[in-house]
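Researcher: Structure for this, please.
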Amino acid sequence: MDLYLYKRVGFEWKVVDKDWEKVRDGLVRNLTNCGYPYIQVEEGDFNKRGELYLKHMHEGTDLDVFYLEKTLSHIFSLWGRPVHLETMLDNKQVLFSYNGEKGSKKFL
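Model: Predicted structure, token format:
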């Protein structure tokens, strides 16, 4: 069927795999939860200051940092307190935070 997996490299889209088993697994992964990541609330009173602590249930696909940072600012506007999101990037545990003025990233 000439199916393949692709991803963006710089400004171009590149074919990264044509193996049918990996293509099948990629399609299933994108259909699970409609392709959206699983993020759960770990704590609603983080640091005993009413801060929201979220955790990305990493399933092999990293979050897009651009959208992650934008989303944290929107969540802050709803929550009204600093927001933290724990995830994995390049197999390293990272904590993103937004305090209403600026965002930060800390490797755990």
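Researcher: Any notable elements?
Model: The chain has two helices and seven strands. The chain has a mean pLDDT of 92.
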